[in-house]
Give the backbone structure.
Amino acid sequence: MSPIRRIEEAKERCIAVANRVQSLPLSKVTDSCKQTLLRLVNSELNFLSRLSSASPDFSGPISANIGYLESVVHILQQTFVTGVSRVCKPIPLSSENEERKCSSKGIHVDIVCTVDRRPVWFIVSDRNPKYISWLGSHKNKGLRARVEKVLSAAQSCLMLKPFSVILFFSNGLDDVVTQKLLNEFGASQFGKEFSEFDCDFSKDLEYEWVNDFSRSYRRAIIFQLKVEHYSTSSESSQGCTCPLLGAVTPDWADKQSQLTLGDAFCSLILTLKLDNQDMESSKQRAILGDDLLNFDTTALIALVSGISNGGTGKLLATPVCEMMKRFKSNYEFVMAQVMSELQNPILVELGGLISGKRGMICESVHSEFKELVSMCGGHNEKLRAEYLLKCLLIVPDSPSERVMSLPTTRKIALKNKVIFGTGDYWHAPTLTANMGFVRAISQTGMSLSTIEHRPRALTGD
C-alpha cells in the first residue's frame, strides 16, 4: 500500500472513531468526556493532514495514536462499563508525598468509570507486545514502574479512589511480562467478556459502502489489580464491622391493608428481596454488596406519594384555586408531576429498577423521610411510608472516604455526601431524583453509581 493510501486510511479510521464517540449515550459518558475524545481525534486528523500535504512520499509508521483511541472507545462501548466521568486525563495529585513519587501533573488514567457498581480505572495500551518491557531502559521506564505509580496514586487519591485498576492490552502481552504481573502484583484475569470485534464503514461519493474498518481484539489481554490488596486500611474490611440496624418483613395477609395502600404499591414492595428468616445470611450478603440498592429521600417519597398511587384523578378534580392555596409556589411543580404520571406511571418504571433488589437506607434518610411524611403526608401516604420502612435495611451513616473528601459546596451539600457516600461505601447504586447533585459530582471527575427516577411530591393523600 502506498504511503498516501496508508495516511488516507488512517484518516478514515479517525473519522470512524469520531462517529463512534458521537454515538455514545450521555447517560453513560459525560459530554465533557466526549469532547475530550473528539479533541484527541481531531488532533490526530490534523497531524495526518499536515503529514500528507508536507511529505507526499512519506514512508514511516502512520499515526501511533489512532489504535489507542480505538481501544479506549472500544472499552466505552461495552455494556458493563457505566458512569464514565473522566477519559484520557491525568488524575491530579496534591500531597507532598505524592508529588515526590509522581509527576506534578499527576498520573495518566485512560478511563474513570464504574463496573459492577464499583469505581475502576482503566489503563489502556495499544503497543506491540515486543515493545512492552518489564524493567524498562533509558528510553522507557517499563511496565513495572508504571503499575507501581498507578497503584500508589490509586491508594492516595481519596476522591477518585478506585476499587480496582484494569490493565487493557489490546494487542496482547509477552508471556514473561504476563507472569511478572501475576507474581509481583497478584493480577487476575478480568472477569468480564469484551466483544472481540469492532466494525465501521465509510462511503464513497455515490454513498455506496466501500470500506469496512474492522478490528479484532482476540489477542487482547485484560488484567485486574484490586487496590485494597495494597492498602493498609481497606474500606471493604471495615464494612464487615458495620452493623445493619434492622429489616422487618411486613404482614401482607391483611387484605384491608392492601386495599388502603393500593395494589400497585403492594405488588411493587413484594418484588424487594426480604430475608426475615435468615437475617445473618442477609447481613453478610448485604455487606458484600449483593443486589443492594440505596434509596435517597426522593426515591422513598416517589414510592409513597399520592400522585404515584392513583391520586391524579382526585387532584385534577380539585378546583385550581384550592390547589394553589394548598401547594402555593409548588402548584406548577405538582401539576407537572400529575401530567407525567398520567402519561407514564412511575411505579411501573420503579418496578423494573427495584425488582429483586435489597433496599437499604441510611439513618439520615430514615430520619428525614419520617419527618417529611409526618409534616406533609396524608393518612394513606403515612401508611405506605410505615410499610415501606419495614421492608428496608437501615444502616448507620457511613459515607465512603472518597465521597467525603469532596469539598462541601452549595451544589455538593454535606447531607447529600452522607447519603450518596453511604451507598458508595456499601457498593450500592443510589436511586435518586436529585440530579443537581449527580451532575455536580460528575463535574468533579468522580464516577458514582446512581440511578435516576422522576420526582414525585407528597400531596396529603
Notes: Residues 96-104, 201-212, 232-244, 276-286 have pLDDT under 50 and may be disordered. The CA atoms of residues 258 and 266 lie 6 Å apart.
